[in-house]
Design brief:
- The complex is a heterotrimer of chains A (about 300), B (about 80) and C (about 375).
- With about 300 residues, chain A is α/β, with parallel strands linked by helices.
- In chain A, about 35% of the residues lie in helices and about 15% in strands.
- Chain A has helices spanning about 15-20, 60-70, 90-95, 105-115, 130-135, 135-145, 185-190, 195-200, 215-235, 250, 255-270, 285-290, 295-300; strands at about 35-40, 80, 95-100, 120-125, 150-155, 160, 165, 205-210, 240-245, 275.
- In chain A, the strands form two sheets. In chain A, strands 3-2-4-5-9-8-10 form a seven-stranded mixed beta sheet, sandwiched between helices. In chain A, strands 6-7 form a two-stranded antiparallel ribbon.
- Chain A is globular.
- The model of chain A is unreliable at about 1-20 and about 285-300 (pLDDT under 50).
- Chain B has one domain (about 5-70): Alpha-Beta Plaits (2-Layer Sandwich), CATH 3.30.70.
- In chain B, strand 2 and strand 3 (about 40) form a beta hairpin.
- The mean pLDDT of chain B is about 95.
- Chain C has two domains: about 5-185, 3-Layer(aba) Sandwich (Rossmann fold), CATH 3.40.50.970; about 250-360, Rossmann fold (3-Layer(aba) Sandwich), CATH 3.40.50.920.
- Chain C contains twelve helices and 15 strands.
- A seven-stranded mixed beta sheet of chain C has the order 3-2-4-5-7-6-13, sandwiched between helices. A five-stranded mixed beta sheet of chain C has the order 10-12-11-14-15, with helices on both faces. A two-stranded antiparallel ribbon of chain C has the order 1-8.
- The chains are: A alpha/beta (about 300), B mainly beta (about 80), C alpha/beta (about 375).
- The interface between A and C is large, with 49 and 58 residues.
- The complex binds thiamine diphosphate, iron/sulfur cluster (3 copies) and magnesium ion.
- One iron/sulfur cluster binds near residues 64 and 65 of chain B.
Chain lengths: ~300, ~80, ~375
């Protein structure tokens, strides 16, 4: 994954960034009498500095995934399918068994994992270039089959890792390194709204779009993520959550201005909310067994 | 008393935390950490204003903030 | 299922599926393409019966990546296809080789390039033996020439894949796949529950006893960015490929006193054997050398025959691919002539007699 030479200095995934030694550990929380620690690093999140640019929302999304894995007591039985993008080093931060997938194929890889080991909790974590462009077939069909998977989709409207090129989600008029005059609807089509598409598919049990631009939206997004996790743990079907995210580096904006752009430009085009929520309390067992190896030999080989 | 702790080596100086504090006590310091970023801080004089709302930690992309909240005593409640 | 040592008549494709099933394969990921459809069709029935999983994927890209996922979990899994689909599988195969994920892949080679035809061909020899996708890697490539061999080799492919943490390829063609022949199945076995225990992904708390702490998380990846890391990984892979040299397998027929050795693999090896038989009856000093492993290639055995003064004729169902490996193997003492059956034409023993005689006559 060669990084474009012109890419901003702060951009990640360079050799140096990958090789950077682990930074000083977070101070172990000391709790004095009369106070309680209400916000700290979840155990599943590695205590190390990330390679992400300042203000990049991958860090928030990672933390929320790790928090949910811990809160829902899933970490020990989780297998993740990481993807190709700025979050390619997911496994350096979220401390669960992880296999790296080729660009766009994480939903297929995750399908293989879940079918092979139905007792695991399986999630993929994918960017918009990865999921909505090269991996469009894989995400659509994993959702349509109702694979018991959870997909965390980070939509930052650019190919972040390769230097900010146009993505399928790039807004009309947005300038990128491959649409320097701004994305033109006639030539390049309109930004794809994935949450709306995934919600249409039969196997999707939960689908929502959240945003990481404000505290309120982050808290709401985490609720959506929990529901997308539960779609799997309750055996309901495919869980999908899209997270509108900032890429200040490739947007050529300060982190604060990037958050403002999400609020003012992205949210109006990509409306937030729940797009699908399977009704009713699923009888977990029967639903799980339709997609899972009930007591098969491979199941026994665990 | 509620309070926060900024792990300075983790801070990337993005300033997102400074935009969400309801009592506006987080600011950029003049200190530059090993990564080369000017880190966020709460002045000692302001810390007692912290409500422990966790907004700053929630929006911090780098897990650089921890938050302690004072337990509500029965009396206070 | 047939009883012990009972002969059953099956197509080569079915023999492959049975070999997989009996070797403990429990996940199959397929996509329709002629001439291998019997394999996914068989597996769609067989997998659920043994508590396994069958997925008809959305493409060969997806099927191969599902194999990658299942393989990373240490579960015996397989995918099958034919040439156009194999092009799509190469992405995942490269990642599997790079990140050392086991899995069995079947290619029932058909005519190409492009959509070609649905008839037999050996046009994917280079793709199979040179890795096939991007980067420096090799696959173990097994080339059956009968339904029984198709069964046995597929069975064995699973053991090899796990012993070496590598994708293993079965290279057949429409002849092997469609021909009905008797086979004897072995007793079905289950994969060793401990297989891949040291590296497979199943969650950090899998198999924990009370009071045990979860182990550190495992990462299976092919991205190596730190200084020296990728070179180290490539050296490790190369050492593995070197170790495969001992796995070489081949068949020889009437080579002892032969002046000319015909080198051919798979279905063509079998047809060439018939031609050699016919010519032996006429007193012609010809023999057959049939590589069963295409990678590793039996270069030492061929070099030895060359040292003994034999001459070589390579016959293949393509425009001349394996002949390069034969020439490399015998280069110190000999060369190899080439007779090609062009993909699109069906080979028969009669076609081979004249070229063998011509090669035998030329000194
Ligand atoms: C087959 C293939 N094509 C292209 C690439 C190069 N590549 C690496 S990351 C990436 C795009 C990532 O963008 P996105 O998925 O939006 O993630 P982000 O970096 O924005 O988080 C591309 C095209 C690749 N690794 N593999
Ligand atoms: S997504 Fe953008 S901001 Fe985040 S690490 Fe990649 S380039 Fe930097
Ligand atoms: S916890 Fe709330 S009040 Fe305290 S510093 Fe952070 S944002 Fe401000
Ligand atoms: S949000 Fe985090 S990284 Fe950004 S300035 Fe505040 S403490 Fe530093
Ligand atoms: Mg992106």
């Amino acid at each position: 994954m060669p990084k474009a030479k012109s890419a901003p200095k702060a951009a990640p995934a360079t050799k140096a960034a990958a090789a950077k030694p682990v930074m000083a550990k977070t101070v172990a929380p000391k709790v004095a009498a009369g106070e309680e620690l209400v916000f700290t690093r979840p155990a599943s999140l590695a205590d190390r500095a990330t390679h992400y640019c300042p203000g990049c929302h991958h860090g928030i999304a990672h933390r929320m995934v790790a928090e949910l894995l811990d809160e829902m007591d899933l970490a020990g039985r989780t297998v993740a399918a990481s993807s190709i993008g700025c979050s390619v080093f997911l496994y350096n931060y979220i401390q669960v068994d992880t296999v790296e997938s080729p660009h766009g194929r994480a939903p297929a890889v995750a399908t293989g994992i879940k079918r092979a080991r139905p007792d695991t909790f399986v999630f993929s974590y994918q960017g918009d270039g990865d999921l909505a462009s090269i991996g469009m077939a894989e995400i659509m069909h994993a959702a349509n089959r109702g694979e018991r998977l959870t997909v965390v989709f980070v939509n930052n409207t650019v190919y972040g890792m390769t230097g900010g090129q146009m993505a399928p989600t790039t807004l009309i008029g947005q300038k990128t390194t491959t649409c320097p005059g701004g994305r033109c609807k006639d030539r390049e089509g309109s930004p794809i709204r994935m949450a709306e598409i995934i919600a249409q598919l039969g196997g999707t049990a939960f689908c929502a779009r959240g945003s990481l631009d404000s505290v309120k939206n982050i808290r709401q997004a985490k609720k959506y993520m929990r529901q997308a996790f539960e779609a799997q743990t309750r055996g309901l079907g495919f869980g999908f959550v899209e997270l509108l995210s900032g890429c200040p580096t490739n947007w050529r904006l300060s982190p604060v201005a990037a958050n403002k752009r999400i609020t003012e430009e992205m949210i109006p085009y990509f409306p937030l909310g729940v797009y699908k929520e399977l009704e009713g309390d699923a009888t977990c067992g029967s639903l799980v067994s339709t997609g899972a190896m009930a007591g098969g030999a491979a199941g026994e080989s665990k | 008393m509620s309070r926060i702790l900024v792990t300075e080596e983790r801070c990337k100086g993005c300033l997102l935390c400074t935009t969400v504090c309801p009592v506006s006590i987080i600011r950029q310091s003049e200190r530059i950490n090993q990564q080369g970023y000017k880190v966020a801080e709460v002045g000692a004089e302001d810390m007692d204003k912290c409500t422990g709302c966790t907004s700053c930690a929630t929006i911090c992309p780098d897990m650089a903030i921890q938050v302690w909240r004072s337990k509500k005593t029965k009396k206070a409640a | 299922m047939a009883g012990k040592n009972e002969r059953i008549f099956v197509k080569g494709n079915e023999a492959i599926a049975m070999g997989a099933l009996d070797a403990g394969c429990r996940c199959f990921f397929g996509y329709p393409i002629t001439p291998q459809n019997d394999i996914p069709e068989f597996m769609s029935k067989a997998m659920p019966e043994v508590g396994g999983e069958f997925v008809q994927a959305e493409s060969e890209l997806a099927a191969a990546n599902m194999l990658l996922g299942a393989g990373a979990c240490g579960v015996r899994a397989m995918t099958s296809s034919s040439s156009p689909g194999m092009s799509l599988k190469q992405e995942a195969i490269s990642y599997m080789a790079g990140s050392e994920i086991p899995g069995v892949i079947v290619n029932m080679n058909r005519g190409g390039p492009g959509l070609g035809d649905i008839g037999p061909s050996q046009g994917d020899y280079f793709q199979s033996t040179r890795g096939g996708g991007h980067g420096d890697y090799r696959l173990l490539v097994l080339a059956p020439s009968s339904a029984q061999e198709a069964y046995d080799m597929t069975h064995k492919a699973f053991d090899l894949a796990y012993a070496f943490r590598s994708p293993v390829l079965i290279l057949g063609d429409a002849i092997i796949g469609q021909m009905k022949e008797p086979i004897v199945r072995r007793a079905a076995t289950l994969a060793d529950p401990a297989e891949g225990k040291e590296w497979r992904l199943e969650g950090t708390a899998a198999g924990l006893k009370a009071n045990q702490k979860p182990r550190a998380h495992r990462i299976i990846k092919s991205l190596f960015l730190m200084d020296g890391e990728l070179a180290g990984q490539n050296m490790k892979l190369q050492a593995k490929y070197d170790a495969w040299k001992d796995l070489v397998e081949f068949e020889t027929f009437e080579v002892k006193d032969a002046e000319l050795v015909v080198v051919a693999f798979g279905s063509i090896g079998r047809i060439a054997k018939n031609a050699v038989r016919v010519l032996r009856k006429q007193g012609k000093k010809v023999g057959l050398f049939r590589p069963k492993t295409l990678y590793p290639f039996p270069e030492k055995a061929l070099a030895k025959l060359a040292r003994e003064g034999k001459r070589f004729l390579t016959i293949e169902h393509n425009l001349g691919q394996m002949v390069e490996d034969v020439r490399l193997s015998v280069r110190r003492d000999a060369d190899s002539e080439l007779f090609c059956v062009y993909p699109g034409n069906m080979p028969s023993p009669d076609d081979f007699v004249a070229p063998i005689l011509r090669a035998l006559g030329r000194k």
